[in-house]
């Protein structure tokens, strides 16, 4: 089935009898045929490599795909290019530069060429600083995602974009969250199954 | 104004003539179209915006990974084209196309009196993106102005509208729980939606500690919980404001307009911006309307025996103000001087939220497009000294998802696993408070500024009074005390006056109020203009007070009632 046809089907009542798994499979098959590697418009190859690596450290491949497989870097590039203001973009890119500076001060290497445990140590520092940083502006927990600004702290931006890029990707939403486009029913208060999240 | 407009050609084109013209195809226009056509009238429905084709325009099943910004919205485009509309939660990456461009549809306010006007111009109007909450008014509302000595008395009482509530509800299909409360009469309900874990905790708490005066019930929503009149039950996909291919929630596109079309007597004309109404001084009736084609800018006229104005409260007032004549220099049908005045909305952004402990092992499956409702409890049984009238609470239980990771420490495999699982439950009460009618809250035509079609824009002057602000404060207090009683953690009471200018509840009403006395009101008790017998205004304009409940159901009941009255008058030869 062509992608366009899959989307058309989803837009009609004909989709209702489909079980959610079938629907996700339809969409994925359709997408696989048309998907091409995205061209990056803001991140240069070095910055991109850092973003890819750091996103994978935040949300690694486990039993399910990680940030790399979800192409979180392409989402971040889109946000940097079309969503962030020039100031917010520069601030984020300066954050990447700072990560490499921290890395070189440790062992004279860029972040991406550091040993994994060293990379993790840097990310841990950044994470602790983020928590300590009182200027985290965004407390919006709604799933509708109407956020209006980038956070000031670089790692807060990185983490938010990684979480968003991953859990709103097709692999993140389907493999990890088991998102069903058409649940078909509402179970108001049931035991949570740790292996089967609800969204 | 003539079609074609060439002076030399002088071709007289007889305007198309109908029994009725309905201006607007939204919540009330759809009802007028259905009721008038089903009663045998050849009816022209004029819609300023574009047509809507559900199979193409509805996007509720487009998953988040198929929209470019993954639900974060096109920030730059919104800030350029829809800085006002974009403040509405429903104007998201899928549904922003159902909201107007603020560039094309400007309005003006004094700097110190912001007003947020959220608008939809397409077939279906705002009934496509509405909140779907449906509540009957009671005599507590219809007698309120008389009791308090405020503004003027409603010319109707509950028993007069009750059969029309029954009538529209039977067609709409409203899910909800009967509660037997005098201040919030029960509708004719379909089965209620279920309360989630946090809501069940709160319901028990309210019953235990506040049971004498307060009640928590499930939201009463125009969403089907079982098949109804050929429309399917809700499948819990969640975002109704993006459309509904199974027509499970009520909108004019989903329900009333198809019913009108089925009669074969409706002509629905889109891209038809009504410029003004044509008043015939001899008959003292409206003979027709002038229309500008939104795309070609061509002017046309249409004639009819009766007019139903259903363009939304502010737009209807604007149209009448723009249709002034020698007889009505201050706006058509405005001998009272009340046209455009008494603008009301509901005050919100007062409430509280908190975390409900003890539910960590529970979750909900499916996305219920509805919340809870707590009927008004202030000034119901006993007089409350803090303010007049009252408020109801909406809101509900919510379970945190991966967004909670934005501000939490952690990364790696365990963090990923935790964020994928549902998080803590919270509960939020958000109040909707009654707004008093006030002559000094009004709209008028701006002297210079015009919209994209050359029609003067509105100058809106509207502000909350101390009574509304006192209500908003009380919302935060009573919400917080209920959360505390439920053992909630991290309770955050809030009032946000700056974030809640009038208009933002999107319940604007009152600009052409009903009343018994033509000297103090624009419409009689059947939504019929005192000054012009064949003009009916059945959108929110007609409201004399605002109650605290969502108004659409009452607009719909009043519209159906007015249509019945108009057709009876026509049959008797009075129109």
Question: Keywords, please?
Answer:
heterodimer; A: 199 residues; mainly alpha; 8 helices; B: 575 residues; FAD/NAD(P)-binding domain; 2 domains; seven-stranded mixed β-sheet; six-stranded antiparallel β-sheet; 12 helices; 18 strands; 19% strand; disordered N terminus
Describe what you observe in this structure.
Chain A is mostly helical and 199 residues long. The longest helix of chain A has 22 residues, at 86-107. Chain A has 8 helices and 1 strand. Helix content of chain A is 55%, strand content 3%. In chain A, helix 3 crosses helix 7 and helix 4 packs across helix 7 (154-167). Chain A folds into 2 domains: 3-34, no CATH class; 45-168, no CATH class. Chain B is of the alpha/beta class and 575 residues long. In chain B, 22% of the residues lie in helices and 19% in strands. Chain B has helices at 27-38, 54-57, 75-81, 139-142, 144-148, 158-172, 197-210, 252-262, 313-321, 413-420, 466-485, 552-571, and strands at residues 16-23, 43-46, 174-175, 189-190, 217-218, 266-269, 272-280, 285-293, 299-309, 350-356, 362-365, 372-374, 391-399, 425-433, 442-450, 456-461, 489-495, 535-537. In chain B, strands 1, 2, 6, 7, 8, 9 and 18 form a 7-stranded mixed beta sheet that branches. The radius of gyration of chain B is 24 Å and the shape is globular. Mean pLDDT of chain B is 96; it is low at 1-10. Classes of the chains: A mainly alpha (199), B alpha/beta (575). At the A-B interface, helix 4, helix 6, helix 7, helix 8 and strand 1 of A face helix 7, strand 11 and helix 10 of B. Strand 1 (187-191) of chain A pairs antiparallel with strand 11 (362-365) of chain B.
């Amino acid at each position: 089935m062509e992608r366009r046809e899959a989307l058309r089907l989803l837009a009609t009542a004909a989709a209702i009898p489909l079980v959610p798994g079938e629907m996700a499979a339809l969409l994925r098959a359709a997408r696989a045929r048309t998907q091409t590697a995205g061209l990056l418009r803001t991140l240069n190859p070095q910055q991109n490599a850092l973003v890819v690596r750091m996103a994978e450290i935040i949300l690694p491949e486990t039993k399910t795909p990680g940030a790399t497989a979800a192409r979180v870097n392409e989402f971040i590039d889109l946000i940097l290019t079309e969503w962030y203001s020039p100031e917010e973009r520069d601030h984020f890119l300066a954050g990447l530069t700072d990560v490499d500076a921290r890395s070189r001060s440790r062992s004279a290497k860029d972040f991406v060429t550091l040993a994994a445990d060293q990379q993790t140590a840097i990310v841990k520092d950044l994470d602790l600083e983020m928590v300590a940083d009182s200027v985290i502006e965004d407390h919006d927990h709604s799933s509708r995602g109407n956020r209006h600004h980038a956070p000031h702290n670089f790692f807060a931006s990185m983490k938010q974009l990684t979480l968003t890029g991953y859990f709103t990707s097709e692999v993140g939403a389907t493999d990890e969250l088991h998102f069903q486009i058409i649940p078909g029913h509402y179970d108001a208060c049931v035991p949570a199954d740790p292996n089967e999240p609800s969204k | 104004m003539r079609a074609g407009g060439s002076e030399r050609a002088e071709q007289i084109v007889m305007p198309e003539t109908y029994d009725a013209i309905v201006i607007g195809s939204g919540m009330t226009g759809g009802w007028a179209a259905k009721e008038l056509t089903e009663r045998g009238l050849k009816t022209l429905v004029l819609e300023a915006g574009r047509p809507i084709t559900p199979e193409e325009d509805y996007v509720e099943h487009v998953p988040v990974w198929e929209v470019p910004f993954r639900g974060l919205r096109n920030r730059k485009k919104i800030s350029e084209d829809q800085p006002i509309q974009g403040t509405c939660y429903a104007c998201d990456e899928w549904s922003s196309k159902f909201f107007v461009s603020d560039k094309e549809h400007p309005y003006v306010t004094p700097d110190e009196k912001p007003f947020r006007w959220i608008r939809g111009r397409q077939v279906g109007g705002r009934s496509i993106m509405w909140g779907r909450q449906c509540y009957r008014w009671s005599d507590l509302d219809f007698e309120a102005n008389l009791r308090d000595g405020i503004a003027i008395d409603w010319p109707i009482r509950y028993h007069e509208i009750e059969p029309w509530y029954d009538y529209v509800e039977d067609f709409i299909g409203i899910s909800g729980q009967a509660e037997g409360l005098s201040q919030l009469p029960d509708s004719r309900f379909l089965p209620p939606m279920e309360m989630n874990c946090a809501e069940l905790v709160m319901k028990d708490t309210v019953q235990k500690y506040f049971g004498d005066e307060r009640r928590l019930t499930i939201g009463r929503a125009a969403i089907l919980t079982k098949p109804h009149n050929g429309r399917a039950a809700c499948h819990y996909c969640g975002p109704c404001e993006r459309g509904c291919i199974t027509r499970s929630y009520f909108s004019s596109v989903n329900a009333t307009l198809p019913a009108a079309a089925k009669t074969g007597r409706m002509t629905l004309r889109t891209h038809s911006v009504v410029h003004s109404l044509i008043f015939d001084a001899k008959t003292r009736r409206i003979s027709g309307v002038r229309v500008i084609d939104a795309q070609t800018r061509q002017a046309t006229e249409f004639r009819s025996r009766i007019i139903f104005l259903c363009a939304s409260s502010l737009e209807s007032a604007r149209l009448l103000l723009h249709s002034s004549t020698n007889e009505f220099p201050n706006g058509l049908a405005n001998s009272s001087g009340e046209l455009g005045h008494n603008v009301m909305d509901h005050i919100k952004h007062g409430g509280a939220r908190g975390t409900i402990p003890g539910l960590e092992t529970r979750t909900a499956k499916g996305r219920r497009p509805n919340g809870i409702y707590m009927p008004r409890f202030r000034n119901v049984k006993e007089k409350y000294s803090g303010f007049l009238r009252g408020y109801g609470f909406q809101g509900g239980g919510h379970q945190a998802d991966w967004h909670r990771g934005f501000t939490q420490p952690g990364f790696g495999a365990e963090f990923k696993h935790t964020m994928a699982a549902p998080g803590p439950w919270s509960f939020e009460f958000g109040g909707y408070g009654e707004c008093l009618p006030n002559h000094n809250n009004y709209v008028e035509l701006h002297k210079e500024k015009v919209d994209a079609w050359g029609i003067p824009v509105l100058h809106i002057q509207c502000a909350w009074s101390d009574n509304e602000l006192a209500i908003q404060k009380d919302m935060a207090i009573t919400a917080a005390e209920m959360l505390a009683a439920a053992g909630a953690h991290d309770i955050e009471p809030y009032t946000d006056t700056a974030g809640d200018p009038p208009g933002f509840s999107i319940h604007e009403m009152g600009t052409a109020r009903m009343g018994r006395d033509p000297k103090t009101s624009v419409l009689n008790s059947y939504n019929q203009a005192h000054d012009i017998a064949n003009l009916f205004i059945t959108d929110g304009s007609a409201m004399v007070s605002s109650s605290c409940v969502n108004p659409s159901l009452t607009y719909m009941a009043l519209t159906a009632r007015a249509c019945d009255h108009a057709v009876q008058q026509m049959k008797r030869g009075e129109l």
